[in-house]
Amino acid sequence: MKESGEQKTLSARWVVPIDGPPLEWGQVHIEGEKITGVSKAGTIEVDENLGEVILLPGLVNAHTHLDLTGFPQEGKNGSNFLDWIDSVIAHRMSTTPEQMQEHIQKGIDQSLKAGVCLVGDISSGGSSWNLLSKSKLGGVVYFELLGLKRDRAQMALEAFLSWIERIKPHDNLSPGVSPHAPYSVRIELLNFAIEQELPLQMHLAETLLELELIKTRKGSFADWLIAKNVYDESGMAPSMRNILQLLDRNSQSVLVHGTFLDEFLEKKRQLVYCPRTHDFFNSSPHPLPQMLSAGWKVALGTDGLSSNPDLDVLGEARFVRNKFPQVSSEQILGMITINGAGLLRMDRKNGTLARGKYANFCCFPIDLVAPFDPLENLLLGNQSCSRVMIHGKWM
User: Fold this and answer.
1) Each residue's pLDDT tens digit, 173-232
2) How distant, in Å, are the alpha carbons of 19, 149, 387 from that of 30?
3) Domains of the chain from N-terminus onward
């Protein structure tokens, strides 16, 4: 590649800008780390012809847990949610800080290999910030807040404040906050998170066990929390509607999962849907089509490897294409590009191929399944990412 700052024109069999129709043998013009334009074939002389590939913006994995990349894959079982939580706790307790950093680095490497350029990483103790800040992968590090009991909630609050003071500003990485879930975050801690006016993600309405706990304060989930000595009924929000109303106070709030939010679709909200993780835990269908019809802004995420086979967000899009054929290919690919960038508040410079945005691209070989429709080709084929460019440089 030419030196940074110099101009270069790339072409590919299909260029998919996302915010416009695909261009056969389209051209992408870049200067340094930015796109200067996208044009039809033959506009100007090409410096690099990428050949029979589909070129599209760098992908966005809007919700993941990089520190769980080392989770054992054998024997993984989502049939009992509480047993699964036990397995995650056991994994975290047996993982040293050094091993966690190794797992995070593996997650970064796997993400880049899959064509991902931005992640929304839910991070225990903000532990992924340093490695992400040194990598080519950008996004948001959401400091995970846990604590239903008052003393634990106060410890979490203090740890977050210490972390936010220590981290250094970064052009391609933003701090965020993640009050984990209704069953694990005291309402005062949730309010604190909302008041920070930072990017925020919260797991919500993921299982029927969670709904039962919020509605009745009883059941197997309550028994499990009591046995762990982490339960405090007075610290829980009064209802699901109350939680949603609180989250609405922060314009950067993003819900994660939302499997059982059917009765709350009247207000447009933002959500990350993790399709294969949903399938891992639930037999109930996800209300994705209803959410889209109601005007919700939806992005896709892989979640962590404790509930998912890999960090390939295009694999999530392919799963959606198979599960919901009524959802258009344009909508689905938007969920792993511009919508994801938007939910991370990074769409001004990411998510589409457009003038002024970063030269972040990924390339996929054309599969014979649909050679003349690049969108369907990506969603119906099984090709893997072949090349990744970030900020104007091939990886």
Assistant:
1) 999 999 999 999 999 999 999 999 999 999 999 999 999 999 999 999 999 999 999 999
2) 18, 53, 17
3) 7-57+351-394 (2.30.40.10), 59-343 (3.20.20.140)
